[in-house]
Amino acid sequence: MSNYQDPYGQQGDPNDVQANKVMAILAYILFFVPLLAARNSPFAMYHANQGLVLFLLALAANVVAAIIPFIGWVLSPIVSIAVVVFMIIGIINAANGERKPLPFIGTIQLIK
């Protein structure tokens, strides 16, 4: 746990947010784009982390669905719908310049 306090709170630096909104939105479609193009932006990195966690959740759920047939028939459509809903929530948050965590998975941090 870090003692670092974000001076801008959950909104982030207004200049960083404005300059990297597109990168933050792209993070939910292709999470690695901000990792390559906006590595120094805390706002873009926050959303890249959210996109990566969402991608890994979808990947893990699809692997489980492929291995266990009956559970897969039930789990796959539910997970697909949830992933799309979480993507939309993340894109809306990024477009509004907000750093809100996604429901259930938003507290997981893989990218620092």
Topology summary:
Elements: H1 14-26, H2 32-37, H3 42-67, H4 69-95
Helix pairs in contact: 1-3, 1-4, 3-4
Summarize the structure in words.
- This protein has one domain (14-95).
- It has 4 helices and no strands.
- It has helices spanning 14-26, 32-37, 42-67, 69-95.
- Helix 1 runs parallel beside helix 3, helix 1 (14-26) runs antiparallel to helix 4 (69-95) and helix 3 (42-67) runs antiparallel to helix 4.
The overall pLDDT, averaged over residues, is 86
Estimated structural class: mainly alpha
**Beta-strand fraction estimate:** under 5%
The overall strand count is 0
Features:
4 helices; 0% strand; 112 residues; disordered N terminus
Describe what is shown at a glance.
Helices cover 64% and strands 0% of the residues. With 112 residues, the chain is an all-alpha fold.
